[in-house]
Write a structure and sequence with these properties.
- This protein is 23% helix and 25% strand.
- By secondary structure, it is an alpha/beta fold.
- Strands 1, 2, 3, 10, 11, 12 and 13 form a seven-stranded mixed beta sheet that branches. A six-stranded mixed beta sheet has the order 4-5-6-7-9-8, covered by helices on one side.
- The model has no long low-confidence stretch (mean pLDDT 96).
- Pfam families: Metallophos (PF00149).
């Protein structure tokens, strides 16, 4: 099977209940070759996940902290609006997504020459191992080290040399300022809220010969809490040439009164390199009304 040399990857950051039937149509208008869904569909919003699972395009998905809002923590369990003894909405979401859910797993796209590997699902981020019982019972994982090992099992079984990594939370190491991709923007300000197990998996993946052009994640919203003067830093490139994209543009759908606009992050991948990343807004007629170029690889544009 011949591999596609240039492709468009649509990245959908934190949904937070803002997903509609028109979004699937918009993805088709954008001619997306692959769609990455980064979690936080709602507070265990099974019906939103059902709609996303029905998107008829090549896709991969992870689940975020809000997708286990009433199940992972004792505080959340106390506020749970349904009977957890009779209903398991976390498992319902996993079942709906099926093989498209790549948290601690992988999805193969041989026609694109890619394997997509998922980081730890349902992550809250940070350097403390939280929600021990949840991760032990759901995934048999009891530490960051075991979490990295679970990701690496997926990496080592990946069929393609080129990997795209995706997670709800980004990896540790992208900066500790409030405006950095995983930076803490609430009091006390500052601190890296990235996932250390994710960072370790990226390093180990390179050691086993994998090429990683893109790491996509969300969780830390573009709109900063402490200032409206500028948004969060959304793209970082490391020394190995891997491009890290925070795609958490929230809210991703805006009603202007005369139109309804929806946003997607679009990544162009060519010859195993990220060529461009743009944040685009489409109107109700699926026309692009705004394009913000977030990244351009000058060498790949020549």
């Amino acid at each position: 099977m011949s591999k596609q040399t240039e492709m468009t990857i649509a990245v959908v950051g934190d949904v937070h209940d803002l997903w509609e039937a028109e979004d699937a149509a918009a993805l088709r208008h954008l001619k997306a070759d692959l769609v990455l869904f980064l979690g936080d569909y709602g507070n265990e919003s099974v019906e939103i996940v059902r709609q996303i699972a029905a998107v008829d395009l090549p896709k991969a998905a992870v689940l975020g902290n809000h997708d286990a809002h009433y199940s992972a923590s004792s505080k959340g369990q106390q506020k749970c609006p349904y009977d957890r003894a009779r209903e398991d909405r976390v498992q319902q979401q996993l079942d709906l997504l099926g093989a498209d859910h790549v948290g601690y797993g992988r999805r193969e796209f041989p026609h694109l020459g890619l394997s997509v590997v998922g980081a730890r699902p349902f992550s809250w981020g940070g350097s403390s191992w939280r929600y021990r019982q949840f991760y032990r019972d759901r995934f048999g994982v009891k530490s960051f080290q075991e979490s990295t090992a679970k990701m690496m099992a997926a990496v080592k079984s990946a069929e393609q040399e080129t990997l795209i990594f995706m997670g709800h939370v980004g990896p540790y190491g992208l900066g500790s300022q409030p405006e950095d991709p995983c930076g803490k923007d609430w009091e006390p300000m500052g601190g890296d809220c990235g996932d250390p197990d994710f960072a370790d998996a990226i390093v180990q993946s390179r050691q086993v010969g994998k090429h990683i052009p893109l790491v996509a994640f969300g969780h830390m919203h573009h709109r900063l809490r402490h200032t409206q003067d500028y948004p969060r830093k959304r793209v970082v490139v490391d020394a190995a040439g891997t491009v890290y994209l925070n795609a958490a543009n929230v809210p991703r759908i805006v009603d202007t009164g005369t139109d309804r606009l929806r946003s997607f992050s679009l990544v162009t991948l060519a010859a195993g390199q990220v060529k461009t990343i743009s944040l685009v807004w489409l109107n109700q007629a699926f026309e692009t009304v705004s394009t913000e170029l977030l990244y351009a690889n000058q060498s790949s544009l020549k």
